[in-house]
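stage 2 :: seqdesign
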């Protein structure tokens, strides 16, 4: 796989096209990556001891690795 955890990437396809972020995790078997601030999803949580109120929790979902490209140091300027 061409991306690694910690790489800065740009989304080139999908609803978040044009957004940039760092790779939080990589799933090599499914060829998917989780990028910080991209593909936000909402999950409903029941109240528990850890989260007494419950409610809606927003987090990043995974996207296919072919929809991102690594930003080099030269392009970052």
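stage 2 :: out
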């Amino acid at each position: 796989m061409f991306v690694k955890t910690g790489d800065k990437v740009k989304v080139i396809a999908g609803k978040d096209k044009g957004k940039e972020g760092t790779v939080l995790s990589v799933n090599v078997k499914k060829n998917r990556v989780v990028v910080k601030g991209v593909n936000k999803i909402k999950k409903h949580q029941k109240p528990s001891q850890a989260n007494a109120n419950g409610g809606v929790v927003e987090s990043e979902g995974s996207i296919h690795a072919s929809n991102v490209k690594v930003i080099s140091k030269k392009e970052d300027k």
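stage 3 :: structure notes
- Residues 5-70 form a domain with the SH3 type barrels. fold (CATH 2.30.30.30).
- The first helix runs from residue 73 to 76.
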